[in-house]
Each structure stands twice: as structure tokens, then as C-alpha cells.
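Figure 2 data, in text form.
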Amino acid sequence: MRFLVRDRILGIGDDYWIEDDHGNKVFLVDGKAMRLRDTFELKDTEGRVLIDIRQKMFALRDTMVIERGGEPLATVRRKRLSLLRNHYRVTLADGGTELDVSGRILDREFAVEYDGELLAVISRRLLTVRDTYAVDVVREDADPALLIAVAVCVIHLAEKERED
């Protein structure tokens, strides 16, 4: 499954649609303005909140928390000792499952893997539409909303780190 994201600077209050490869709107990323911490909601086309994304307050490293239905789903943080490439670790709420996100995050060229198996590829390389990147969900049993939320988190964290 391929999803197309119009690239925007992910600041507070930014809203943007994510489309499928046929141009149909599938998800809305709704950035919440006027909050103490960075907050986004991933909504369906009916406006129902599928996933909440929030910056974790009082963490030693910048951390984003992904929730579904008010329950924690995953935590995203930069991996320690990742000098050459952007490297993020996603810890799912079950505690034992970790996803690895690595690549050139700011260039929108990175992958999401679980235990060495590719789950999704985020890339703008093959697209002709300017300022757009694709989220290609490789595995059919993967959760597209979660993988899109992970992409939103790591891009936001990388942009924030670059600003600092």
C-alpha cells in the first residue's frame, strides 16, 4: 500500500491530508496549536481520531508517544549512539516489540523494520510531485496508521533536533 504525504514543515497547527496512490484522501494529520507540548492527531476521512501523537513531557531525550483510544501504543525516541545516520527506536506498548527506523530522515529517505524485516519505506525519490514523499507499507499485515504515525514522529523529532 502506498500513501502520499504532501511535505510540510511539521509545526504546531499544521494540518495536511495523506492520500492513497489513486489520489483519494485517506488520513488527516491534524496538528494541535496552542498546546504546551507538540501534539498531532491522525484522523480518518470522517474526522474520527485513529491515533494521538504527543511529545512526552519531562523526558531526558525528545520522545513522542503514540496512543490509540487513550491507550499507549508506542514510544518513539532517537536511538543512542547513532552518529552516521538518523536512527530511531519505536518501542511498542507490549514492551517486547521494537521497530527500528533508520536512514536520512530529513531527506525523507528511511525505512521502518522489525527484527530485520522491512515493514515500510518512506521515500520521495521516485515521485515527480514536488514536496511529496511516499509511505510504502510493504507487509500486508502491518498497521498503516501506526507506520504513518511513526513517520510523522521521526520527521518531527528530526526537524526539532535540527532547529536546536
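Caption note: The domain at 2-163 is CATH 2.40.160.200 (Porin).
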